[in-house]
Structure formats: structure tokens, C-alpha cells
Amino acid sequence: MSKNAEKGEVTIRPMTQDDIEKVLAEDKSTGTDDRFITFAMPITVDHLVEETAFGFIAEDQSKGAKICGFLTGVIRKEPEGTEAAWIHLTGVHPDYRHHGIGTRLAEAIFEYCRQKGVKSVRINVNWGDASLLTWLGTLGFGMSLGKLVEFERTV
User: Fold this and answer.
1) Run means of pLDDT, 10 residues per run, the chain, 155 residues
2) Which of these, 114, 115, 108, 103, lies nearest to 141 by C-alpha position?
């Protein structure tokens, strides 16, 4: 981990379409055992071109604004009529984990939602991702037993 993250040289800013290729390059540079992106889903420009899409980037200014984390999502109208922000993808480079960067990215999303009048932030998580579940708990997320339940049948 870069000591620069602890010194406050990591800044958070809104994500742009130009950042997508940089995020993918950083993810690829970490190798397959310890990925930058926590969810194995391809990131595309489509994640940011929707009118209601949002994203934030963490950059290490001491390393030429190297991208070291990101968080993307979208604001959607829910079936009950309210709006909710859904986090789609998040990741912090392995060298920068456990130094509050993910929390700072989440706080940027929370502030963005407050400014937009959105009162709920949601995310779907794999039960097997213990570190992500723990992190979400520290941010104040709780399990929501909504109206939808996932069913699966093997054929």
C-alpha cells in the first residue's frame, strides 16, 4: 500500500467516460488472483452514459493521478415509486486497501444522493464475498428483505 493514501494525497472526483479504460488497465495490472474490480462484470461506457448514472474515482496525486479506486451506479425509480441509487461496481486497487479509500468513495456517493434528494442506496452482493459484506456493514448498510426473492433451479 502506498503511504500516500494515509497522507491525504488520494483525492476523490467524479468519474468520466475517459476513466473507464484506465480502470480496466489498472484491474488488468493486478493479475487475476487479487483483482481491482470486485465483481466480474465488464465495465463499459454504458455504465456512465445513462442520464441517471454516477461514478467517482480515487486518484493518488503523488503518482501522477494514478487511479486507485472507483465506484459506479445509477439512480432508478423503484416499483413503489421512490428513487434509489444502486451501486453497480466498486473496486480499490489491492495496494490501497484498508486505508479508507472505499469509505471515502462511498461517502461521495452518499453526498451525491443527498444533493439529488435520493434517500436510499442499494447494492446486490454475493453471500460469499465476506470482505465486501463486512465493509458494507461498516458503512451502515443492512440487509433489506424487499419484495423480490431470487429463485434458481438447476436443469
Assistant:
1) 60 88 71 53 53 86 91 86 88 89 95 94 84 90 74 67
2) 103
Provide the 3-class DSSP secondary structure of residue 42. Answer: coil
DSSP string, 54-83: EEEEEEEGGGTSEEEEEEEEEEEE-TTS-E
Of 117, 114, 55, 50, give the one whose Cα is nearest residue 83. Answer: 117
Asked if 40 and 27 touch (Cβ cutoff 8 Å), the reply is no
**Out of 3.40.630.30, 3.40.1390.30, 3.40.50.2300, 3.10.20.310, which CATH number does the structure's domain 3-138 have?**
3.40.630.30
Own/partner long-range contacts of 17-25 (Cβ < 8 Å, ≥24 apart): 17/45, 17/48, 17/49, 19/55, 19/57, 19/67, 19/70, 20/44, 20/45, 20/47, 20/48, 22/67, 23/57, 23/67, 23/70, 23/91
- pTM check: above 0.85: no
